[in-house]
Amino acid sequence: MTAMAANTLFAQKDNPLLKEWNTPYQTPPFAEIKTEHYMPAVKQAMKEAEKNIKAIASSKKKPTFENTIVALEKASALLDKVTSVMYNMNESNTNPELQKLLLEVSPKITTFSNSIFMNEKLFERVKAVYTGEEMAKLNGEQKMLVEKTYMNFLSTGATLDEDGKKKYKANAEELSKLSQRFKQNVLADNNNYFMHIKDKSELSGLPENVINSAADEAKKRNLEGWVFTLDYPSYGPFMQYADNRERRRELWEAYNSKGNRNNENNNNEIIRNISNLRLEQANILGYKTYADYVLSRRMAETKENVEVFLSDLLKSAMPVAKADVAKVQEYAKKQGADFELQRWDYSYYSEKLKEAEYSFSGEMLRPYFQLDKVRDGIFGLFGMLYGLEFKENADIQVYHPDVKVYEVSDGGRFMGVLYLDMYPRASKRGGAWKTSFRGQYKENGKDIRPLIQVVCNFSKPVGDTPALLSFDEVETFLHEMGHAIHGMLSDVTYESISGTATYRDFVELPSQIMENWATEPEFLKLFATHYQTNEPLPAEYIEKLKQSENFNSGYYCVRQLSLGLTDMAYHTITAPLAATAEEVERKAMAPTELMPEVDGTVTSTSFSHIFAGGYAVGYYGYKWAEVLDADAFSVFKKNGIFDKATAKKFRTEILSRGGTEHPAVMFKNFMGREPNNEALLIRSGFIKTIER
């Protein structure tokens, strides 16, 4: 054995990412994994995958489902194991070394992946199975895996000539780099800004818990006074409650200029490059626009269908939204605001109007939403619906002290591991999401259960006061847990079509439907008690919450539609984009604008969903799935929100199926009919408002 070979063998044996994990449920041994382990592990895992791919492609045996499709499904198992940890840590617990590493290694992984799909011999074997006689003998899940595999080859350039393949690979590698840079720039701009307040009078209007959190943040930075950041638990309440208009403006402009400042984190050129490269990739594959390319594998099917969907919903929502804004403007004037409402004014005055109309404020609910109790309430809900039990396991290693881990079971049957990571920190990107370290699949008669991670950025504990959530945070928690349970209840054979591996415009149904329980009195009564007195959430608070459910519904719907339209604007271009993000966004959002524009501020340059999060030509999906979730929840409302028979059908027809069947079929199997938008329009108050 040469010295180099010996060193390689030693590195493999010493690298925790390449070892068998002798941990509970083969969970990642985070205490042992260091940043320097990732690169050698990725290289070794790619070598192993290349060897497996070569064996499949060069096989002399007749191509079959097992020796080609299933073999390909398993060929990159080690690489998937390594990268799932690496990418998830970059999102939730990154560091400068890891960020630098990702800029180098992500393009290599992309190139490797493309080399698989552009392997002519491999494609010929896949095509032989897809068009062969064996297809008729396969079950529905097996057929779906074959079809998905075949379509992945087509959509990644398998049929291109050599020049086309070369160009496609180069573009894909560059896109991988650009998306990493985009998210790093957003995180840097987010972390580099804070608003330091020394004069207590500038805190007027802010709730005590918000002031205490700001004081705690200042102490952590060795500063006197109070510090407000762009993390939403700090930013959101300030915009809602701070009386100081100039400070609201300062914070709003900082939040809405991330990635658009005159510094090294500016994302304008990155956005142009991403948009243009995506267009070029689509053109190479024979599509007119990137939207045409993406939507060929979505429920919506075409960009024309998406445009009609957004346009029709906007027609219903816009009159209500205009009425919402006019009402807030009128109220503000009565309060002495002798100016046209600006964007940094809207949350503030709409919250005050809500208090005036309903004698109710969101802050009145916060003491009843202690994080631990909300968590237990959500766990209890999934127990009532699906029989799930959650048990904390302190023996499972975590990547940060904030993280808690739970074993999930169903009548004694182990269902998976759930990691909950709830609080903001500089090493974590903003927002909330569900991901996994391992998906569910079956192998050699054994059901391999998932390792699922839910990451949020919720209000933190301060001193002796526990973490108290806003109502919006309760909804977010329910939403992300809906994704988690979609993954946890998966019962399929192949990992690439298990859990949430379904169409983008369908995957939000299992998450968004859970938000409906947030305003149901029967659910709230299970856990919502005052953190100090243990008194239950008063019935009148629940009633006021229900009464105010559609407050500003038009305004918020139009805001979501504006983001969907912006997403489509970048991805329906037919010629290279030269405009700035601000110019593209202004034009796209023009039909939805309700207040004056603000120079220098823009959403696109921090719009990670579409430029670094897999939702390109997919943001419309939130509203698309909202039609589905309102429709589906109407069945629960009719039969009872805890009705086990309804829950069982939802689990059997949707949650357990993953991506093993077309979403339209799964939805129809649950509902007994095609979806319609009536339930959403009623829930949002649009039909009633328009008819009146």
Text of the CATH class of the largest domain: Mainly Alpha
Average pLDDT score: 95
**Number of helical segments with 4 or more residues:** 30
Poorly predicted runs are 1-10
Terminal CA distance reads 84 Å
Structural class: alpha+beta
Which key terms come to mind for this protein?
692 residues, alpha+beta, Neurolysin, domain 3, five-stranded mixed sheet, two-stranded antiparallel sheet, globular, disordered N terminus
Topology readout:
Layout: H1 3-14, H2 35-57, H3 65-75, H4 77-92, H5 96-117, H6 120-131, H7 140-155, H8 162-192, E1 195-197, H9 208-220, E2 226-228, H10 232-241, H11 245-255, H12 268-284, H13 290-295, H14 303-334, H15 343-358, H16 362-365, H17 371-386, E3 388-392, E4 404-410, E5 413-421, E6 433-438, E7 441-443, E8 446-448, E9 451-455, H18 471-488, H19 504-507, H20 509-512, H21 521-524, H22 539-547, H23 553-571, H24 581-589, H25 608-612, H26 620-639, H27 644-653, H28 663-671, H29 678-684, H30 686-691
Structure, described:
- The protein is α+β, with helices and mostly antiparallel strands and 692 residues long.
- It folds into four domains: 12-159, Neurolysin, domain 3, CATH 1.10.1370.40; 193-255, no CATH class; 273-360 and 553-616, Orthogonal Bundle (Neurolysin, domain 3), CATH 1.10.1370; 367-547 and 621-691, Neurolysin, domain 3.
- It is built from 30 helices and nine strands.
- The chain has helices at residues 3-14, 35-57, 65-75, 77-92, 96-117, 120-131, 140-155, 162-192, 208-220, 232-241, 245-255, 268-284, 290-295, 303-334, 343-358, 362-365, 371-386, 471-488, 504-507, 509-512, 521-524, 539-547, 553-571, 581-589, 608-612, 620-639, 644-653, 663-671, 678-684, 686-691; strands spanning 195-197, 226-228, 388-392, 404-410, 413-421, 433-438, 441-443, 446-448, 451-455.
- It has a five-stranded mixed β-sheet. The chain has a two-stranded antiparallel sheet with strand order 1-2.
- Strand 4 and strand 5 form a beta hairpin.
- Helix 2 (35-57) packs antiparallel against helix 4 (77-92) and helix 2 packs across helix 6 (120-131).
